[in-house]
Design a protein that fits this description.
Layout: E1 13-18, H1 26-39, E2 44-49, H2 51-54, H3 64-77, E3 86-89, H4 95-104, H5 109-114, H6 116-123, H7 130-145, E4 150-152, H8 158-175, E5 184-186, H9 216-223, H10 245-253, H11 256-267, H12 273-299, H13 302-331
Parallel strand pairs: 1-2, 2-3, 4-5
Bound molecules: adenosine-5'-triphosphate (ATP) and magnesium ion (MG).
Adenosine-5'-triphosphate binds at residues 18-19, 21, 27-28, 31-32, 153-154, 156-157, 190-193, 201-205.
Length: 340
């Protein structure tokens, strides 16, 4: 756990979050989480399970606690090391919502309405909650509360990060010279993994995912019917790997020689799609096996996961308190009686 000199003086700090809105999937892993694992050895890193964001979509409150703990377990199994980074649950640090309110005074409503995620997610709702509109303001608060300057995310979050920078700029201009740094995104080579429907982004909320913790049987059950190049109507029709979502997945799970072979077999109809899927499934199962093994061990010791989250929240509360004291002061809030 990073500690020591006042964090306000520190330079590079990484922050990122993930919603407990469903299973940790290979899009999350390839697009963001494997980068988190790499970054924890290079920078001070804070990672957050953003349960306050997850409640902006329809959800069952009875399931949220288990989902939150499963996400924590999945992230630790994927390689987050509590000795190298901080992992915590957003609602354990109430300053996130306090700062979100403070930032909302400089967040342009028109920009919020233009966000692609808002448009896509609100289209699925009969009544659009205000919280869905304000989602990017809370996200800006998550990052700025720790004055983080680096944010490893998938491509879908670039627009929100641009808005975070805008919010930081506007807040600084109005209340305090350069208090908040402008956070920059960090992308991986897998910045947008497409879902098994071959169409939309792989998303927890769309049910088009392969879970990082899925068993070998489930991975195969999900890959078997997955959409491929539509030109391959029958076994004899040649395909174009560049139009096949599963071919793009091969590039993350299969060896270079296998990738070349798969492309050739697709173009010549040497293989059927099922042959290609079987190889992908085998490679994916092998790649995810160490994560599944660590998850099984952690499942047997849930107290370890709870302890990590408790320690993470205690650390983040200290940091958050420091930021909010300055924010309240700069925004002109009178100190509470007895406060110093
Ligand atoms: P939801 O559907 O509930 O929004 P999600 O699958 O989009 O869930 P998030 O918790 O919103 O997951 O995002 C966590 C991180 O994973 C973010 O950095 C996001 O950019 C990244 N990410 C999500 N989906 C993908 C994807 N398909 N490809 C690459 N990165 C992704
Ligand atoms: Mg998302």
């Amino acid at each position: 756990m990073p500690s020591g000199r006042s964090y306000l003086a520190r330079m590079n700090r990484v922050f990122s979050g993930i919603q407990p809105s469903g299973e940790l999937h290979i899009g999350n892993y390839l697009g963001a989480v494997r980068n988190w694992v790499a970054l924890q050895s290079q920078h001070e890193c804070i990672f957050c399970i953003v349960n306050l964001h997850a409640i902006t979509q329809p959800y069952d409150p009875r399931e949220l606690p288990a989902r939150t703990m499963e996400m924590a377990l999945g992230l630790l199994a994927a390689g987050l090391d509590p000795d190298k980074c901080t992992l915590f649950v957003q609602s354990h640090v109430p300053e996130h919502t306090e700062l979100a309110w403070a930032l909302s005074v400089v967040a342009p409503k028109g920009d919020l309405e233009r966000m692609t995620q808002f448009k896509e997610k609100s289209a699925r709702e009969e009544t659009v909650p205000a919280a869905l509109l304000n989602y990017p303001v809370l996200q800006a608060a998550d990052i700025l509360l720790y004055r983080a300057n680096l944010v490893p995310v998938g491509e879908d979050q670039l627009q929100h990060l641009e808005l975070s920078r805008e919010i930081a700029r506007r807040w600084n201009a109005r209340f305090g010279e350069d208090f908040f740094p402008e956070p920059q995104p960090l992308l991986t080579s897998a910045k947008r993994i497409v879902g098994l429907d071959g169409n939309a982004k792989m998303s927890k909320s769309l049910g088009n995912t392969i879970g990082v913790l899925d068993s070998p049987e489930v991975i195969w059950e999900k890959l078997r019917p997955a959409v491929t190049d539509p030109a391959r109507k029958t076994r004899k029709d040649p395909g174009n790997p560049d139009l096949c979502n599963l071919f793009s997945l091969h590039q993350f799970f299969s060896a270079p020689a296998e990738v070349t072979h798969v492309a050739e077999q697709c173009r010549t109809a040497g293989w059927g799609c099922l042959d290609c899927k079987r190889l992908l499934a085998d490679n994916m199962i092998a790649a995810l096996e160490p994560i599944r093994e660590r998850a099984a061990e952690l499942k047997a010791h849930p107290e370890r996961v709870r302890a990590v989250l408790e320690r993470g929240a205690a650390h983040c509360r200290d940091l958050a308190r420091e930021t909010m004291a300055r924010v309240r002061d700069l925004m002109g809030f009178v100190p509470a009686a007895g406060a110093h």
